[in-house]
Amino acid sequence: ILAPSSSVVPLVTQTMAEHRMYLPLAGVVGLVVLAAYERMGPLVTWILAAIALAGLSIATIVRNYEYLDVVGLWTNTVANYPQNARADSLLGIELAKIPGRLPEAVAHCEEAVRIDPAYADGHNNLAIVLAKMPGRLPDAIAHYQEALRLKPVFAEAHRNLADVLTGMPGRLAEGIAHYEAALRLKPDYAEAHFNFAVTLAEIPGRLDDALAHYEAALRSKPDFAEAHINLANELAKLPGRMPDALSHYEQALRLRPDFAEARYNYAVVLAKIPGRLVDAIAHYEAVVRLKPNFVDAHTSLAVAYAEAGRREAAIAQLEIAARLDPASTAIRDNLETLKARR
Q: Among residues 8, 79, 217, 316, which is most buried (max CB within 10 A)?
């Protein structure tokens, strides 16, 4: 059972995956039980089997607790294999997702590249974590570049470096070059198409290219809700593309009914279409239920209520918005105007 996967098919990322031993051990266990039965008789064999079963069951329960949490599992791996660069690197990535644990994440990612300086994925992961820390962006860029020096065909590192560079003054062209490199290496890389599209949409004259990359992202990953909503937002601005925009809004909401921002943008568009005000109001109402602190949703719902002749409901929404954003003079002025019309 082990021969094909151990000798023929390389499993680079599963060098010590314990589940690979389950089936191979079945034959060994069977032989041990039969040998014990033959030498010691059924009673002793049953007693020994019961003891083994109890002990192994306890060990399984203990091990399963380690599997409950990704951070716990990688922490256990690092404790048992302290020279495992991959374990330190992936523990760092998981720790970076937890508020307040970014310094620990950096320490583990740095340990990974100390253990194995030629570990390209380790440099990429360290860069991801460093990019989240104030003042460490130059270090992050250096580690992305080192990852690409070690592994020039590393599409993910090209994309990550592009994400950083396109947000920096004067480095847009470099960032675009790295997006293009990532997509040459991995043409179906949905996240790279998406991030490239976001960047292109902000550049005058590149909207058509942005739309093409959003569409490419969706061909590779049809359930990419964020791509649907961004594409819809751009299409809604173009003459004659409103039906397509509405279709993408609806697909985004089918994929993620709790996507408050998508629902809000959909409502904004619906409110501008003759005869769709009631639908817009329904979506605005859903948004404020999903995200009660969404000030713009409350003010937009107030406007829609006012257009529908529901003045008191509009006033109630503006009062909520005023409590959420007491510094807004526009909200206060609109509220006083509506109250004056009572």
A: 217
